Amino acid sequence: MTDFNRTRAAFHLPEGVTYLDGNSLGPMPLAARDRVARMMQDEWAEELIRGWNSAGWYEQPRRVGDRVARLIGAGPGQVVMGDTLSIKVFQAVSAARALRPERRVILSDSGNFPSDLYVAEGLARAVGAELRVVEPEAVADAIGPDLAVLMITEVDYRTGRRHDMAGLTARAHEAGALTVWDLAHSAGAVDVDLLGADADFAVGCTYKYLNGGPGAPAFIWTHPRHAEAAEPILQGWMGHAAPFAFDLGYRPASGIERMRVGTPPVIAMTALDAALDVWEGVALADLRARSIELTEAFIAGVEANCPGVTLNSPRDPALRGSQVGFRHPQAYAVMQALIAEGVIGDFRAPDVLRFGFAPLYNGLDDVARAVDVLARLLRDGSWDKPEFHRKAAVT
């Protein structure tokens, strides 16, 4: 059994704060501070540019990628780190579409994170393809013979709705299409199994449930059957077969290495590497069971005690990730009042109170406090103050 008391003790959680926003930014693992300090002092300061070889900076994206692979049901040598999630979405979708050049349609859903849709829209315009967006419930029926790529975020960022990865992948394959899965709200939160689902490509960020810190690097995975054929439009120096030959023409590196683009963010990746230490000894089945326990308790508590809110997430835990949303007509102000009381979730337009439950550090005591504070604010109306209605730049 996974010891969640041990994992909770591995994080800095400010006194008096109930943190339910790890689906936006995970808290700081205690080991990250010291690991980054040592890297800066012992590697950057002393080794200077020699660190690319002596400290293993050049191989870091693959080494850390192997650690992420275990958490998403991928194998060794199949995941590489670097760049941002938007760049990795662009690479994955462009590579998948190029493997189906006779087809024009990229299919996604309206619950997808908007930036994924922005990337796909720009790519479609550039290559003469079509981005088709349907309601989440309509995805399966929209898969047809003209489909090149199914681009889906597994867990909806607002509702927590979880798509059936294996089922939709099988349906796409039956139609001759390929799949790209965004795991931004899945990795570290649910029991992902990319190889088991027979997916084609996957991408994700590491600053949410993987706790890599603000701006932590993204990851990309390619199924081994595509590893030597995938050719993304965005071709970078680090993805060249021989970067230090300085050839003027591009030759893709072997396998997942060709998905590297720019110089890896070594300091940020060092923090992520430390964060991944927390996952040693964590079983994904235990993680999923704990997530369901927390979210079920929260839904029951809110619905029993908090007037004026409506569940915005699937009621069936099998159809839900590790987050819960409730709707309220003044959700922004209510959330600001919660945050002022030390219960940190977040707001998603137009009217969603969003709460993320990270089993590594959240427990039933966090659920109880969040329910109690939310119930009090809604009953006494203390959320309705001018300062709670003023919108900040980041919501």
UniProtKB/TrEMBL annotation:
GO terms, biological process: anthranilate metabolic process; L-kynurenine catabolic process; L-tryptophan catabolic process to kynurenine; NAD+ biosynthetic process; quinolinate biosynthetic process
Catalytic reaction annotation: 3-hydroxy-L-kynurenine + H2O = 3-hydroxyanthranilate + L-alanine + H(+); L-kynurenine + H2O = anthranilate + L-alanine + H(+)
Keyword annotations of the record: Hydrolase, Pyridine nucleotide biosynthesis, Pyridoxal phosphate
Keyword NADP annotated: no
Names of the cofactor(s): pyridoxal 5'-phosphate
Residue sites binding pyridoxal 5'-phosphate per the record: L85, S86, F113, P114, S115, D116, T153, D182, H185, Y207, W237, T263
In-chain residues carrying the UniProt-annotated modification N6-(pyridoxal phosphate)lysine: K208
SUPFAM superfamilies: PLP-dependent transferases
Top EC class for this record: hydrolase
GO MF annotation, one: pyridoxal phosphate binding
Pathway stated in the Swiss-Prot or TrEMBL entry: Cofactor biosynthesis; NAD(+) biosynthesis; quinolinate from L-kynurenine: step 2/3; Amino-acid degradation; L-kynurenine degradation; L-alanine and anthranilate from L-kynurenine: step 1/1
E.C. no: 3.7.1.3
Database matches in Pfam families: KYNU_C
Superkingdom per UniProt: Bacteria
Record flagged with keyword Transmembrane helix: no
Cellular component GO terms, alphabetical: cytoplasm
Residue ranges the record marks as coiled coil: none
Complex formation: Homodimer.
Function: Catalyzes the cleavage of L-kynurenine (L-Kyn) and L-3-hydroxykynurenine (L-3OHKyn) into anthranilic acid (AA) and 3-hydroxyanthranilic acid (3-OHAA), respectively.
Homology family: Belongs to the kynureninase family.
Protein's name according to its UniProt entry: Kynureninase
Source organism of the structure: Paracoccus zhejiangensis
